[in-house]
Structure formats: structure tokens, C-alpha cells
Design goal:
- By secondary structure, the protein is mostly beta strands.
- Among the domains are: about 10-115, no CATH class; about 495-565, Immunoglobulin-like, CATH 2.60.40.
- It contains three helices and 46 strands.
- The strands form six sheets. It has a 23-stranded parallel sheet that branches.
Length: about 575
């Protein structure tokens, strides 16, 4: 009964304390100003790792958190409570963390409210969310950021000549930055600005006492499921991510709207190794935003299942200004869909322009493989065929800095579709930006190359590849109605004969994604597509008992059969 009376009391009074109870708050941050930036210091609270700090629903001036620290297993949580927290700041950044470690900044405090924090204004040249002053191990999610003076989210500590601890040589590394499920729009600068861009290895634009000074590294960057619209500068800019940087499942619409030269990319990446996949970018025709650039990226950087539509320049521009750290592994461009680039589809330049070894300056790293497979590139704006140069129609799609580079890489560029007539290849709905295979007769269907060796096993919608006998070309894998729609009333698969000698047959397998045969030692002896491989040759197996597992489209184990080989 106490709980009942307490609930009635809360419903009647709607007190902050009642909301705090429902939000599981360990600390409620009270007394916040609506007119002056709010400085929140760790010394004001007696807290433990894993505690939750609640900010009650209100319209507030900027929020600055200083010195808070959780642990790797028990981060501190800063969350909205009771409704949306609106931040309107006219002089400083909207929300800022300084000297913070193991923090989760979350706008998921109210069920059903997608963005619990809404930064609607910042000072000139400042950020919606700023992560600076030696922050590390930070997660930011479910925040709506708009109308910023500069970047939507910025994460970096710039090198300062008066503070050598800010230099890369000091050893500080920003680890484990996780940014996801945010809505960033109408920014003055970048949607996201991650890392210092003034220098990578050899030359820096920061000079202290006559010496180059470099920005700190990032390790562990995961940026995903964000929506970025109408960013004045780059959609996402990331630099100096030397280890485990993934940017995926983000949606971009109209980037680089301020038309600032070299600051208008869908994504601008540099000085690290990157895995870029399952991103969708649409640029309104006539908007100046260019596609994706990678400057001084290191060996193994990979781009797959990305869609880039109407970029105002090259769709992908890749320039390794420094030596590759591994000459056996360069860049990988796989299963991307590129439509109507104003320049070329993919431009590749492995020429060294900065090196500690002066003998390597202007050396083309043509022996490092540049792998391009299963890409669809349509209607490039480049038109080399009409000019008296070594480049021709093929270079409008895959472009190179030098003829010798092109000639050395042709062996690595295959199983792609390059076209100036999309109507002939069989796409689903170009009016709605769906360039997936239309049907089994599409030129994209079953004409790709097996790129599973590069760990590309799904498409842009996380559908398992391949659905047919072979990979499809482009970001989408074609799915028939039989493997996308099924009901619980459908019959179980039929497997026969059992016992079997050399072959088994599978009927009514439409609701299953794949099959897997396991022996009694738990070893996988066969795996295949349940839709296509309804006749399976198992003649190589020794007599005995086996388990045949069926997996559904979500990759979950759905059915198991016991089989006997005679």
C-alpha cells in the first residue's frame, strides 16, 4: 500500500523527486540556470562508479561537467529525467565534458522520447556537444543537436604550445569514443568533428619553438546510427584514429551546404585506419557537398555497402600521402553504390608527398593492392573520353593520379558495373533512391565476386550475403519474397532421405537463411544457403550421426534435425 499511496502522491504533485525515483537517479542536479552557463563539478557530489546523474526537464543555458570519472565496468550516467531537457546557449557550447572519463551522456531517460536532450542553440563558433580537455571513454547518444555555431559534436584536445601534456608525445590517447543514435542538423560547421586535423606523421600546422607538434591519437571509435542533415561543413570528420575506427549505419542528407573549400565532404577521414560501411548519403542535386575523402589512411582501410548519391565531386577520393605501413594491404572498396557523382566514382592516388625519407617523395606505391569489387557506379560527371590525355571512359569510373598506377591496379578491379544508363541494369526505384536489384533479371543479381575473405558478409540492411549462388553487385543484396516474408503457419522444412548415403534434399526451406551440418564433436562439416542449396552433396562425410541446423533471417537458430549417414 505504501507504493500505491506514493504513486498517487507523485501523480498529483509531479515533483522532481517523483520523477527522479522513476528515472533511477542516484543524484539529481538542481539549481541550474536558464541564463548563465552551468558549471557542474565532481567535487560537489559524493558519488560511486555506476551512479546516475539526472537533469530534470527544463530549458537551460549551457551545461559543463568537469572532472567526473566512472570505471570501465561502471561508467557514470548523465541522463534527462521527467521529459526533454532543452539547452539554449548564446555564448558557449551547449553541453561540454572536461577532464571526464568513463561517462555515458544519454538522452534516453524517458521511454518513448527519442531525444531526451535537445541543443537548440550555441555560441558563435561553438559546439552542440564538446568533449575536450583530456576526456576519454565517452558514450554520447539520443541527443538532438541543431543550429550550432560550429560543429554538432566535437571530440579532441588540441595541442597547445604552452602545455606539452596536450602533445601526442605526452602519451595521452582518447580511447573508446562511442557516438550513436543522435540527430544532428543545421550546423554551422561539421556535423561531427573528431580529432585534430593539423598533421598526421611528418608535417603539422602546429609549430612550437620551431618544432612540429602533433595531436593525440584515438583508439576505439564507433560512430553509428546517427542522422546528419544540412551540415554546413563535413558531415563527419575523423582524424588520427589509429586503431579500431568504425563508422557505419549513418544517414547523411545535404552536407557542405556552406560551400567552404575542402570542408564540404560527406565524410573526411585522415591519418588512421578506418572501416566505413552501411552508410547512406543523399545530396540534393546542385548542393556543393563532395563525397568521401581519405587522406593518409593506413593499410587495411575498407569501404563497403555505402550508398553515395549526387555528390558534388568525386564520390570517393583516396590519397595515401605517406608510406603504407603494410605493403601487402592497401585499401578495399567493395559493394558500394555510387550514383551521379559530379566527378569520378572513385579516385585513387598512392603517391607519397610527405616522408621522413626524402628519397620516397613523389614515389607511387603501385605495388600495394587497391581492391575494387562488386561496386555499382552510375553516371559520373567526369568525361575524359573527349580529351587528349591518357585517361579515357574507364577512368571516369575508377580514376587514378598516374597511368602507371592505373596499369598496376587493373588486375584488382573487377566484378563491378559501370554505366551511364541505369535503366538497362534493373534497379528497384531510382525516384526513391532505391538502387537495389529489381528482380532475378537485374544485371546486379548474382554477378558479384565472393568478398567474404574481407569479412563482407551482409548488405546495407544487414541481410546475409549471398542470398543467391553469388554475391550481388552494389550495397543491396536481392531478396525474394520467399526469404523475406513468412508466417508461423508455414510448414517445417522437409529433409530426405534419412538415413542418407551421398545426398540430402531440402523442401519448404523458404523461411530459413542458411543451413549448417555439425558432427557429434561439434565441428561444422557443411554450411550453405537454405534457399538455393536444396540438394546438398555430403558424400565426403564418414558414416555417423549429424545435426542439421536451420537459421532464420535474423541469424538465429530456428530448427534442428538429426541425420544418419549410412
Amino acid at each position: 500500500m505504501k507504493l500505491f499511496y506514493f504513486s498517487i502522491f507523485c501523480l498529483v504533485l509531479l515533483s522532481d523527486n517523483c520523477y527522479a525515483q522513476s528515472c533511477n537517479c542516484d543524484h539529481t542536479i538542481n539549481g541550474l540556470s536558464t541564463t548563465a552557463v552551468n558549471q557542474v563539478y565532481n567535487t560537489s557530489y559524493n558519488y560511486s562508479p555506476g551512479d546516475t546523474f539526472c537533469i530534470m526537464s527544463d530549458t537551460l543555458a549551457g551545461l559543463r561537467f568537469v572532472g567526473f570519472e566512472g570505471t570501465i565496468d561502471s561508467p557514470l550516467v548523465i541522463i534527462n529525467c521527467g521529459g526533454q531537457v532543452v539547452v539554449k546557449e548564446n555564448m558557449y557550447s551547449g553541453i561540454e565534458l572536461k577532464l571526464c572519463k568513463y561517462i555515458e551522456l544519454s538522452g534516453s531517460g524517458v521511454p518513448g522520447l527519442e531525444y531526451g536532450f535537445n541543443v537548440i542553440q550555441t555560441g558563435n563558433g561553438l559546439m552542440g556537444v564538446g568533449l575536450s580537455a583530456f576526456d576519454t571513454d565517452i558514450e554520447v547518444h539520443h541527443i538532438d543537436i541543431e543550429n550550432t555555431g560550429f560543429a554538432g559534436i566535437m571530440a579532441k584536445t588540441d595541442p597547445d604550445c604552452n602545455d606539452s601534456t596536450t602533445w601526442r608525445s605526452s602519451g595521452y590517447v582518447f580511447r573508446n569514443l562511442h557516438v550513436h543514435h543522435n540527430y544532428i542538423h543545421n550546423t554551422g560547421g561539421e556535423g561531427m568533428y573528431i580529432g585534430y586535423t593539423g598533421g598526421y606523421k611528418v608535417i603539422s600546422n602546429k609549430v612550437c619553438n620551431g618544432n612540429y607538434v602533433f595531436g593525440h591519437w584515438f583508439e576505439g571509435v564507433n560512430i553509428h546510427h546517427n542522422i546528419l542533415e544540412n551540415t554546413g561543413w563535413d558531415g563527419i570528420q575523423v582524424s588520427l584514429a589509429r586503431q579500431d575506427c568504425k563508422i557505419h549505419h549513418n544517414t547523411f542528407t545535404d552536407w557542405g551546404t556552406a560551400n567552404v573549400t575542402w570542408q564540404n565532404f560527406m565524410m573526411s577521414l585522415g591519418g588512421g585506419v578506418y572501416e566505413i560501411y552501411n552508410n547512406f548519403g543523399y545530396n540534393t542535386p546542385g548542393n556543393p557537398g563532395i563525397g568521401l575523402q581519405l587522406i593518409s589512411g593506413q593499410s587495411g582501410s575498407i569501404f563497403y555497402n555505402n550508398v553515395i548519391i549526387n555528390p558534388g565531386g568525386h564520390a570517393m577520393f583516396l590519397h595515401s600521402r605517406h608510406e603504407f605501413d603494410d605493403a601487402s594491404s592497401g585499401y578495399y572498396v567493395l559493394n558500394n553504390t555510387i550514383i551521379n557523382p559530379a566527378g569520378s566514382g572513385v579516385f585513387y592516388n598512392p603517391r607519397i608527398t610527405q616522408s621522413l625519407d626524402s628519397n620516397l617523395i613523389f614515389f607511387d606505391q603501385d605495388d600495394v593492392p587497391f581492391i575494387c569489387r562488386n561496386n555499382l557506379i552510375a553516371n559520373p560527371g567526369s568525361d575524359y573520353g573527349s580529351g587528349p590525355i591518357w585517361k579515357d571512359e574507364a577512368e571516369c569510373f575508377y580514376d587514378f593520379n598516374a597511368k602507371n598506377t592505373r596499369d598496376s591496379q587493373l588486375v584488382n578491379i573487377h566484378h563491378n558495373i559501370s554505366t551511364r544508363d541505369l535503366d538497362t541494369i534493373g534497379i528497384t526505384d531510382s525516384l526513391n533512391n532505391d538502387y537495389s536489384p529489381l528482380d532475378l533479371n537485374s544485371a546486379l543479381y548474382n554477378t558479384g565476386f565472393d568478398v567474404s575473405v574481407f569479412n563482407v558478409n551482409t548488405d546495407i540492411n544487414d541481410v546475409l550475403r549471398p542470398q543467391g549462388l553469388f554475391y550481388d553487385i552494389g550495397a543491396w543484396e536481392f531478396m525474394t519474397m520467399s526469404n523475406t516474408i513468412f508466417t508461423q503457419e508455414e510448414e517445417l522444412p522437409v529433409v530426405y532421405p534419412n538415413p542418407f548415403e551421398d545426398y540430402i534434399f531440402i523442401d519448404k526451406s523458404g523461411r530459413y537463411q542458411k543451413v549448417e551440418l555439425i558432427d557429434l564433436l561439434g565441428q561444422i562439416v557443411y554450411t550453405g544457403n537454405a534457399i538455393v542449396n536444396n540438394r546438398i552433396d555430403l558424400s565426403h562425410l564418414v558414416p555417423g550421426v549429424y545435426l542439421l541446423n536451420f537459421y532464420n533471417i535474423k541469424h538465429n537458430l530456428s530448427q534442428t534435425f538429426m541425420l544418419l549417414k549410412k
